[in-house]
Amino acid sequence: MEFVQAVIDGLLIGGVYAVISIGLTLVYGVMGIVNFAQAEFLMIGMFVAWFAWAWLGLDPVLAAPLSFAVAFVIGWLVQGQLIARVLKAPSVAQIFLTVGLLIVFENGALMLFGSQFRSVTTPYQTMSLSLGSLFVSVPYLIAFGMSLTCGVALWWFMRASWFGRAMRATALNPAAAQLMGIDAGLMYRIAFALGVGLTAFGGAVILPYATVSPAVGSDYVVLMFTVVVLGGLGSVAGAVVGGLTVGVIQALSALVFPIQLQNLILFLVFIAVLAVRPQGLVGASR
Amino acid sequence: MTILDVHGISKRFGGLQALSDVTFSVPAGQIVGLIGPNGAGKTTFFSTLVGLIRPDKGAVTLAGQSLVGLKPHRIAAYGMTKTFQNVALFGDSTVLDNVLTAGLLRHDVQVAREEARRCLDRVGLLAVADKQADTLSFPERARVELARALCTGPKVLLLDEVMAALNPVEMREIMDLIRSLRDDGITLLVVEHHMRAIMAICDRILVLNFGKLLADGTPREIADDPEVIEAYLGRSMEKHA
Amino acid sequence: MRSWMIVAAALVVACLLPLSLDPQGYWIRVLTFTFLFAAMAQAWNIIGGLANQTSLGHAAFFGIGAYTSTVLLMKFGISPWIGMFAAAGLGGLAAFAIAIPTMRLQGHYFALATLAFGEVLRVIANVWTSVTGGSSGISVPFSPPSLANYSFKLLLPHAYIALAALVIVTVIFEAIRRGAMGYRLRAIKENPSAAEVIGVDTTKVKLQAAIISGMLMAMLGTLYAQVAVFFDPDTVFSAGSISIRVALIAILGGIGTPVGPILGAFFIIPLEELMNDWFSASAAGLSQLIFGLILIVVILWRPRGFVTLLKSLSAKLPGVSA
Questions:
Q1: Which percentage of chain C shows pLDDT scores above 70?
Q2: Are C104 and A87 in contact (CB under 8 A)?
Q3: Is the domain of B167 the same as that of B121?
Q4: Is residue A284 one of the residues assigned to a domain?
Q5: Is residue C212 part of a domain?
Q6: What is the rounded CA–CA span in Å between residue A175 and residue A169?
Q7: Which letter does DSSP use for residue A133 in this model?
Q8: Do B56 and B143 have their domain in common?
Q9: How far is CA B162 from CA A133, B191, C131, in A?
Q10: pLDDT of residue A28
Q11: How confident is the model at residue B239 (pLDDT cuts 50, 70, 90)?
Q12: For residue C221, what are the domain limits?
């Protein structure tokens, strides 16, 4: 029974991991760069939601679209002004530009907000639904539901909307897409802004059961990367598979291992995937 | 003495059979031409010989040494290397450094530098030894690539369209160079589209089409072979003839 | 001719510098760490600069070195000098173990994998309490001061040892860069397939570079342990303060050049100390923020690093040949 409980918890949390990580895989799929600062946008999303709660009394889950919007704008500017300049540069330049962003965001937040940990209190925080002998935590469930909604919206956007199809075209063949009249630079900005916006959305959604501080990004970095590498860098469907898988792995390893070792399991999965099947479970090699 | 023995080489990429049961032997000192329409599998075949691509089936033997499953650097050490069709120089390095690196296979840096200068002189490019490789024109880069391959001290040299984009004078020089390399004891396999050049310098021609070896004979025999003519010109031409 | 004169002059200045500082003071410590980080960045430079593989996990070797010599001293009384060579052995082994699975990975993937390795070791060190003392850290046992014990009352000898380490690592870097291995690494960087075809054993060369870099980094970890006297896994295996920082130093200074890591270290380490002084606790994070901004600016406008500024300056001086 403990096992089933862990799997349920793992799936619920995993759904959120998927939403948080989709942005990372989207950016890589469209532009070919790994955004090492992606987890900082999680932090930004969490802070936006926290302040919305502290100043406006807004439930974090309702503030999630606000988090999305703030991150979207920041991402739009960052991509257009900074990242666009290194798209043709050697990978070491790309890597260290986003590492520089990581340093700037984390320390900027440290200076603005201080290092203390903050969390929210919501009426449903400790509630859970019971299914027989199993419990479904309400914050987890709401987070999962929001993630699902977000995921469906993204799926519609990528499949049905012009922008989504144009982005996929740019990812597959930038030169051909340009010839079709698609502005590749615009697509990159949308992809990046959308990607970091989604991560921020995920941050807001987990706030009811997580704590935020300027350094919170580093807690989630390896997790996010494990999700996308497991699913396949560049594959959105892969991020979903990866997210759910990582959620379940984490929940199951919590049954057996102490907290420090849980992360180790993730790291080892991460390294194993990179060594054995770098394109991930779902992705095709780039 | 047979220097190169190719037996039953086949390679499939997904749904495409790129090479089918290619078999032939080359005696030392021959200049062998390899021709065929675009997409026939010539470059793929060269890549298989030097170990960049692993064939699904078949064997390659160089002077009695089996090359199956060996990595390209081992094959180069045994004495076979190739030039790249689109020229694969180390663009940021100087011309001399490009060739020198090849010389490191058998010599230390000092001697490799001497050898590199010798090879560059052989292709007539000693004057540009200190220029950055990607500042040269395409034909010059193709010749640097030839010098680089030469500097590995090969027994068998595979040349992939070294005469592309050459004017008649330059072509003449390359043809003379190829002959002089043969006189030095190197066996050459040459992929080329310039028919007249192939006919002039090759002792023997292999024709590849859709991955299969269509014909194998002297230039005269190949020119008269109806299957070869059909492969290049297509059946419809015959109707009009 | 002229570059030899500059190098000789710089060495003389470097040797005199520690003597000019207050032996009890703060700045001799800063200088020691500057030399040390320059050496670390130079060790990274072998992989990140010459082999063009951006490693974000070099802390793995550094931490292995620091813990190996300290544990050997603590449990078996083995001198840190010998411990340093044991550290080199383990560091080389670790480099081999990391290089094999990551061999085929390119650019971003390689960076991610090495980052993960560094973190794995950090977690292991935190958990393996019986050997490392866990997250509460480990102290280097006191030995009576002597050169043989690698123990000194003052910081001055530490500074000279760090300087010697910097010189040695730089000499090794140059020997690789100018020798056959340098040519082969450059070829692999530009076109691995072509390199193979002309006889370069790409796997062997990359492994050699990785092992040398790992061994040197581990030995520098031993140096650190002897200077710092106390450390914990979150310090020596740190992704941010070690792995990323040494790569950053090499990149800002001039990646792939022998002088880049030195320039980078002399810029960053003292500046960091100064800024921590000026701004102190009231603006925690400001110095790092500024470095983040400098990094972004350099990447966008001078990606080859500060060394290019030097080159354009010296080009403007009359009568100087490059």
A1: 96
A2: no
A3: no
A4: no
A5: yes
A6: 10
A7: T
A8: no
A9: 76, 8, 62
A10: 87
A11: very low
A12: 2-10+26-316
**Is the distance from CB of A229 to CB of A222 less than 8 angstroms?**
no
CA distance C173 to A145: 55
DSSP string, B34-56: EE-STTSSHHHHHHHHHTSS--S
CA distance B99 to B97: 5
Q: Which is higher by pLDDT, A81 or C18?
A: A81
> Could you tell me if B139 and B161 lie in one domain?
no
| Residues B72 and B119 reside in one and the same domain | no
Given a contact as 3+ CB pairs under 8 Å, which chains touch C?
A: A, B
Q: Is the pLDDT assigned to residue A286 strictly greater than 60?
A: no
Distance CA A62, CA A205 (A): 8
C299/A contact by beta carbon, under 8 A: yes
Q: Determine the 3-state secondary structure of C30 from DSSP.
A: helix
Question: Per the domain annotation, does C321 fall within a domain?
Answer: no
Q: Could you tell me if residue C181 is inside a domain?
A: yes
Q: What is the pLDDT of residue B234?
A: 58
Q: Is residue A234 part of a domain?
A: no
Contacts of A92 in chain C (CB under 8 A): 48, 52, 54, 107, 251, 255
Q: What is the pTM of this model?
A: 0.90
Q: Which of C107, C248, C291 sits opposite A91 (nearest CB)?
A: C107
Which phi-psi region, left, alpha or beta, contains residue C107 (left: φ > 0; alpha: ψ -120 to 50)?
left
Tokens, residue B63:
């002077």
What is the spatial distance between Cα C186 and Cα C183, in angstroms, rounded to a whole number? Answer: 5
- C283 confidence band (pLDDT: 50, 70, 90): low
Domain that holds residue B28: 2-79+154-240
Which of the pair, B241 or A61, is modelled with greater confidence?
A61
> Structurally, how many domains does chain A consist of?
1
Flag whether pLDDT at C280 surpasses 80: no
Same domain, residue pair B94 and B212:
no
Q: Domain check: are B120 and B204 in the same one?
A: no
User: Is A250 a domain residue?
Assistant: no
Query: What total of structural domains would you count in chain B?
Result: 2
pLDDT at B241 over 60: no
Residue C136 three-state SS: helix
Q: Residue A276: inside a domain, yes or no?
A: no
Query: What pLDDT score was predicted for residue C10?
Result: 85
- How many CA atoms within 13 Å lie on the side-chain side of B9? 32
Name the residue type at position A193: A
- Return the CATH number at C255: 1.10.3470
Chain B contact residues (CB < 8 Å to C): 50-52, 71-73, 76-77, 81-82, 84, 88-93, 97, 100-102, 104-105, 108-109, 112, 148-149, 151-152
Residues B63 and B161 in one domain: yes
CB burial string B112-133: b at 16+ within 10 A, e below: bbebbbebbebbebbebbeebb
3-state secondary structure of C170: helix
Closest CB from A86, A233, A274 relative to C299? A86
Range of the domain at A67: 2-115+137-214
